[in-house]
């Protein structure tokens, strides 16, 4: 790790006026600094800023500095969000990591994290060795010739499924962005991962009220049961009336370059009876447009099975 200067601004305004890289839980930033993937000269500890609080009075509002463990345990948090948080990391990391930092975490691609290898995310134009290299963990959806790295966040998948927004503060004022629109496909510029402008800070996460999101879940498939990143995951919420699906929200993780909403699957579920056959038919369109690599073709079928598993888990024993 290279030397850096650490300061702790006392107000949001002071933080926005100070040059440097924001530090909250540090579970991603410090890790990448140790690897020299990131080498900021100035680091701003923002943990004293008034960006906390969880409000479930009308939908869900979460301060950006709230810790993952506290959000997961809070009554009234939608099950898909709580479950995604609990499956995200070890208890120790959940106690440290902030929700804002989690949404901005960088990919776990081994080539990105190894400064001895080329990587278009670190150094644009150097290439993407994962395309022809070790790519079992990489994306099959939303990829480009420049990057096939998966997005790492679990809770972002649940939040995208539930139409969450984030509030951002910057030198030019504040703005609100749908989380689904915040993330960017790699295209020719995989180093630009989101719509965060220079000096901006996530201040709050807002999930609109959705009464039937009480029937929601998050399923994560990984190589081991303990702390591990997803091979594939699915966030699902269902509105069920008279044994039929009135509405649905579905998003996937571990298979795409960003949290991947699946509107075609949602459309295929609407109006259908709550049966395994309906679920399998809807899930069959989940991998449309997938571009598997040499080591991850299994993710095409795994994505479909993960969605079916989530739907079955959500409806098993329900008041259908």
From TrEMBL:
FAD-binding PCMH-type domain location? 1-212
Alphabetical keyword list:
Oxidoreductase
Organism superkingdom: Bacteria
The residues the entry assigns to the signal sequence are none
InterPro entries recorded = CO_DH_flav_C, CO_DH_flav_C_dom_sf, Diverse_Substr_Oxidored, FAD-bd_PCMH, FAD-bd_PCMH-like_sf, FAD-bd_PCMH_sub1, FAD-bd_PCMH_sub2, Mopterin_DH_FAD-bd
Q: Which SUPFAM superfamilies match?
A: CO dehydrogenase flavoprotein C-terminal domain-like, FAD-binding/transporter-associated domain-like
What PANTHER family does this protein's entry cite?
A: OXIDOREDUCTASE, XANTHINE DEHYDROGENASE SUBUNIT C-RELATED
Please give the name of this protein.
Xanthine dehydrogenase family protein subunit M
């Amino acid at each position: 790790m290279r030397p850096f200067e650490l300061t702790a601004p006392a107000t949001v305004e002071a933080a926005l006026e100070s040059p440097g890289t924001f530090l909250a839980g540090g579970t991603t930033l410090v890790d990448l600094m140790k690897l020299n993937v990131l080498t900021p000269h100035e680091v701003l500890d923002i943990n004293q800023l008034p960006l906390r609080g969880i409000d479930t009075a009308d939908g869900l509002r979460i301060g950006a500095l709230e810790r993952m463990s506290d959000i997961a345990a809070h009554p009234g948090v939608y099950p898909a969000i709580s479950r995604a948080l609990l499956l995200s990391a070890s208890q120790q990391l959940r106690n440290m990591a902030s929700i804002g930092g989690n949404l901005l975490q960088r990919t776990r691609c081994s080539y990105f994290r190894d400064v001895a290898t080329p990587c278009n995310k670190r150094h644009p134009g150097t290439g993407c060795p994962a395309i022809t290299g070790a790519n079992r963990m990489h994306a099959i959806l939303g990829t480009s010739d420049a990057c096939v790295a998966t997005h790492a966040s679990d809770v972002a998948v649940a939040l995208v499924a539930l139409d969450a927004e984030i509030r951002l503060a910057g030198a030019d004022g504040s703005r609100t962005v749908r989380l689904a629109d915040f993330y960017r496909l790699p295209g020719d510029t995989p180093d630009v991962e989101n719509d965060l402008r220079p000096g901006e800070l996530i201040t709050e996460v807002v999930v609109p009220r959705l009464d039937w999101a009480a029937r929601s879940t998050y399923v994560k498939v990984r190589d081991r049961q303990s702390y591990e990143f997803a091979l594939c995951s699915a966030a699902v919420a269902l509105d069920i009336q008279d044994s039929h699906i009135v509405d649905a929200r579905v998003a996937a993780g571990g298979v795409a370059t960003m949290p991947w909403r699946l509107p075609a699957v949602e459309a295929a579920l609407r109006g259908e009876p709550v049966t395994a056959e309906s679920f399998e038919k809807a899930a069959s369109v989940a991998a449309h447009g997938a571009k598997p690599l040499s080591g991850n073709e299994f993710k095409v079928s795994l994505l479909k099975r993960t969605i079916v598993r989530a739907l079955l888990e959500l409806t098993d024993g329900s008041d259908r």
